[in-house]
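B., you asked whether I could sanity-check this one before it goes into the benchmark set. Here's the sequence:
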Amino acid sequence: MKEKTKLFLGTATLAASLIALLCSCGGNSNSVSDAVTLNIVDSTEEVSSLDSYIEDMTAIRLDSKAQIVMSPNKLLIHGDELILLYAGKVSVYGNDGQFIRNIGRIGNGPGEYLHLQDCCISLDSKELLCLNHMNEVLRYSLSDGSYVGKTPTGIAGITASAIFPDADGGFYLFFANPSEADLANFEKEFLCLRRLSADGREIEAMLPRDDFNINMGFASPSVQLADNGYVLSYRPGSGLAYEFSNGSETPFADISLGTKGIPTREAVKDGGNPWNMIGDIFMADYYKCPSSVCRTAGTYYCSAFGKDSSVWNFVLGSSSLRGIRWTSIGDGAQPMHAIAADKNYLYFCYAETGAESQDEVSDPLQKAIISRLGLVLGENDNPAIIKVKFKKL
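And here's what the prediction gave me:
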């Protein structure tokens, strides 16, 4: 895979490490050139209505036995269950919206956590792997939610923001940027992706950072696909997204924002702390932070931020690589974007309360939800999960 260097760690000799490095890169048939190019801006038409593009839409109303106070930023689909990560904790619902259980709880005891950064399903589909803010992986049984154990990684000073499953109970951790002191330093290489064994031992590191990665808790860099695959999209502008499937990582798509994308290293152009630039970046009139990148059998999907912190949704046909885009500003709730995908449907989280008429909302998808489903959420209702299947584009 181009754009990534692999550093093998451990007690092996230098010669053996070099042989392993050459074999791992040379034997990978899924090169960067194999990744589809998605020109999400230049190849899409802005639309104000989705009526003629939606083939099917259904709503899963999440009951309020466990109150969801913040919109979920991660959804995992496991058989007939929906696993939701929100406000740093995890709850499980049936595909009919009925509450099943919480996974772990807030605290400092065994199986407890103060905050969860991300979660994924193990490749054997037996465990939920939950990443906490200490780069520890808490493991829970998917059959009953019981606590299995904790895997420390020993990685300190930086906090991972995403976890992906690997073979034999191992996992990958994604680190957006180095320590606070090195955020704008690109002379010293920082590898964003670490592969670890089931016991937390680092095996290799890859994916050199080439820009300041704007990591946001409300927009996970990881999205689940059908068959428990995952996509990592982390760049502030154009570039590759990667797929994790069956214990390997490969290029998923080369996402292009065209001439309307954020300039390279825009956040560090003044040489200071890049977080001081974030407010200006999200108000600026260019596209940035392609996220929620995923696909169904007939479409590719991507979201990105636009002017004044608006969120743009892009849907392109998998054959034509052309499609539509629409903006979601958010009226009384967080702007909508897809948070998961299966073979046919994109999954959105809808949290707008009290809206009964299309005239009360500005988001084309919200208008379709009201007109097609007649869905009205009350102030004490949990969000609803909206499944959307798009027509062939």
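One thing to flag: The longest helix spans residues 14-26. Otherwise nothing jumped out at me.
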